[in-house]
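can u do me a favor
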């Protein structure tokens, strides 16, 4: 198969207080060196993480408070496919499934939340310092992904020549839109037929949040990059949709190399 990244974009969303400001508050509180300062520092580190997660969810057109309803039962179940985090807050499972945060980072964030929600002891300075580091690392990683991601790509198989140029014979062209509501526009393209018929129109359909393919497509688009080997992400995507893949015979190449 071939995978061809097309265009990239950046996503953003703003609240009155930003994740970076919460991190700054956490650092300032940390140096007060008393019980109140350490507790406030830990709380602000948690707020930075929660704020960044909500920023990401909102930036792609979803509502962090209604995520379960928006994705539906099948979408929520899809988060667990190939994902080691089978429980915990839905938003954390969501960002891990999309590859926004690694399992290790998500695990450390969960421990931070548990420390605040289930413990009433004086937090140790080294634990608070680690919490600030985790929050800062996550915010930077998430911002980096949001500032540089693919929103259009194609994948397909076979080769053909159109007007002397070699290209994929047939492919699906996928475009993610978050306005006015999040959805994927998917076009099926038979390039040889399009060339012979002279028609620029291709069959198309929309994939919306409660559709079975929505979360798998979200995973695929957030795991994509312009210079990344897409064999494993495409294999995981097709396997989740029910296609039988023979690992030893399956390879994905960059369609831009034609």
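np, heres the sequence
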């Amino acid at each position: 198969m071939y995978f061809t990244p097309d265009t990239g974009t950046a996503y953003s969303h703003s609240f009155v207080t930003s994740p970076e400001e919460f991190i700054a508050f956490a650092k300032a509180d940390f140096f007060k060196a008393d019980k109140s300062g350490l507790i406030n520092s830990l709380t602000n580190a948690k707020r930075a993480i929660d704020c960044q997660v909500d920023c990401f969810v909102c930036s792609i057109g979803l509502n962090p408070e209604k995520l379960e309803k928006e994705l539906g039962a099948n979408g929520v179940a899809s988060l667990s496919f190939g994902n080691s985090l089978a429980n915990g807050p839905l938003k954390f499972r969501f960002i891990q499934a999309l590859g926004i945060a690694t399992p290790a980072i998500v695990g450390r964030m969960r421990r931070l939340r548990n420390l605040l929600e289930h413990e009433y002891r004086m937090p140790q300075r080294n634990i608070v310092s680690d919490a600030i580091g985790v929050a800062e690392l996550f915010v930077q990683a998430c911002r980096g992904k949001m500032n540089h991601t693919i929103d259009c790509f194609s994948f397909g198989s076979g080769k053909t020549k159109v007007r002397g140029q070699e290209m994929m014979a047939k492919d699906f062209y996928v475009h993610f839109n978050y306005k006015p509501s999040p959805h994927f526009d998917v076009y099926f393209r038979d390039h040889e037929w399009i060339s012979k018929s002279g028609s620029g129109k291709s069959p198309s359909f929309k994939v919306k949040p409660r559709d079975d393919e929505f979360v798998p497509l979200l995973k695929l688009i957030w795991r994509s990059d312009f210079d990344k080997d897409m064999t494993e992400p495409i294999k995981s995507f097709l396997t989740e949709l029910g296609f039988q893949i023979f690992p030893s015979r399956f390879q994905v190449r960059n369609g831009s190399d034609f």
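The mean pLDDT is 88. hope that helps!!
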